[in-house]
Amino acid sequence: GSLSTGRTSVLAGFFVGRYNTGMKWIALFLGLALQLPAAEPLPPEKVNTLIEALGRLDPALVNGNPALKQRLDQVLDAVRGEPRLVGLVKKFKVPDREADLLEVAAGHPNDPAGVEALGMVLGGDGLKSVNALLTGNDAQQAAAVARALGNSNNQKVLSLLTPLVIHPKVHANVRKEALKGLANFETGARQILAWAKEGKLPQNAKFTASLALSTVRWPDIKAESAKVFPRPPGANAKPLPPVVELVKRKGNVANGAKVFQRETAACARCHKVGPIGQEVGPALTEIGDKLPKEELYEAIIDPSAGISFGYEAWLVTMKDGNAAFGIIQSETDSELEIKGPTGAVTRHAKADIKSRQQQPLSLMPPGLHLTIKEEELVDLIEYLASLKKKP
Q1: Which of 131 and 187 is assigned the larger pLDDT?
Q2: How far apart are CA 215 and CA 221, in angstroms?
Q3: Cβ-proximal residues to 163 (8 Å cutoff; 6+ apart), any chain
Q4: How far out from the chain centre does Cα 186 lie?
Q5: CA–CA distance from 260 to each of 32, 271, 379 (Å)?
Q6: CA dihedral of residues 294, 297, 301, 304 (deg, nearest 10)
């Protein structure tokens, strides 16, 4: 009897403690939240405390209480676009947040939260929203979503990525991410191989496809890919080793810096590293933080496979028959500024323009790797990979 009574007292004390702890966090959450106007954004210093309090509250309690639910929505608005939004939406099963989840997926395509956010959208009614982003006018956002799709390990993405590869008007970077994503699935990898055999792959997709298929985990696809995609030639007309082998080599950073500045390689004619070079194409001062070695090789061997956003080449034809070719540096209601391959900027009145067309090829000419030896190419990549943000 005394033992039973003691055990009951301990259990009662445990549940009372849990209840009191729960009430403490409810009181903290409500007390803090109710101090803040509902119509105004939450101060950043309060958001972390509110998220911690929400993490200790039961979802049924929050969803059943209008005041708590209103504050939850306010917290979600405060962390829109951030990975921590995903856990809150998942825990409290918040509806109608597909757009916010897609924003996280697009902004953090390689982050587990970004991948999970996309999986939550695909698991609901968000397929139309995803497809709208992939085919919309914002190519940078479309490429980020395509990358997140490829990382998702969800078979549903195949039907979304497949049309992007062979569509003639897709941005090169969107096509590139779609190809890499498809190669993560056996069905997708076999589809890429089939396109290559049928001659249906766009020219600016072939090197990306060969690179993606050279690292797949299915031996027969990898072997067949090596036959279908010939290796690009080097400076002496001898085929370069596969990129998967080149990335394993250790180059000489100092010599790579000399190659970068060499006139025959022409890298510094269009790219800046710190104060060195000209800014026609993207600055490369921190390129080692942005691209792995595989993609650095790809950028040099086949520059049209992926073109940096904002550096697409355009052909602008005038009514008088003249034309300008280069990057659109700025645009107003009445004028275009175009930076040509030499870095010279010309201005053109829109009233004088007959047409403008984005070009499928990069402003960076192909074949630069043919002007240097294989060892120098490895050194150049080692140098570029070393260019990172200083601590």
Answers
A1: 187
A2: 10
A3: none
A4: 22
A5: 57, 9, 10
A6: 60
How far apart, in whole angstroms, are the C-alpha atoms of residue 237 and residue 300? 17
| DSSP assignment letter at 233 | B
Model confidence over 296-329: pLDDT tens digits? 998 888 887 777 777 788 889 999 988 888 888 8
Average pLDDT over residues 232-258: 87
- What is the reported pLDDT for 76? 93
Quick one: pLDDT at residue 29? 55
Is the pLDDT confidence value at 103 over 80?
A: yes
Q: Is the pLDDT of residue 168 over 70?
A: yes
Q: Which residues of 142-162 are buried (b: 16+ CB within 10 A; e: fewer)?
A: bbbbbbbbbbbebeebeebbb
Q: Which bin fits 121, alpha (ψ -120 to 50), beta or left (φ > 0)?
A: alpha
Asked whether the beta carbons of 167 and 139 are under 8 A apart, the reply is no
- State how far the Cα of 72 lies from the Cα of 77, in Å rounded to an integer: 9
Runs of H (alpha helix) within the chain? 2-33, 44-55, 59-63, 66-78, 84-92, 98-107, 112-123, 127-134, 139-151, 158-166, 172-182, 186-198, 206-213, 219-228, 243-246, 253-261, 267-270, 287-290, 293-301, 374-386
Please spell the DSSP secondary structure of 126-194, one letter per residue: -HHHHHHHHTSS-HHHHHHHHHHHHHS--GGGHHHHHHHHH-TTS-HHHHHHHHHHHTTSHHHHHHHHH
Residues 103 and 109: their CA atoms lie apart, in Å, by 10
CA distance 234 to 228: 19
Beta bridge partners of 36: none
In one-letter notation, the amino acid at residue 167 is: H
Per residue in 197-208, pLDDT (tens digit) is 999 998 888 989
The angle at the Cα of 25, spanning 88 to 98, to the nearest 5 degrees, equals 15
By residue count, the chain amounts to 391
Please enumerate in sequence order all residues whose Cβ is within 8 A of that of 292, keeping only pairs 6 or more positions apart, or say none.
Answer: 247, 385
CB 141 within 8 A of CB 106: yes
Lookup result for tokens 């005041």: 67
Residue 95: closest CA among 67, 78, 76, 68: 76
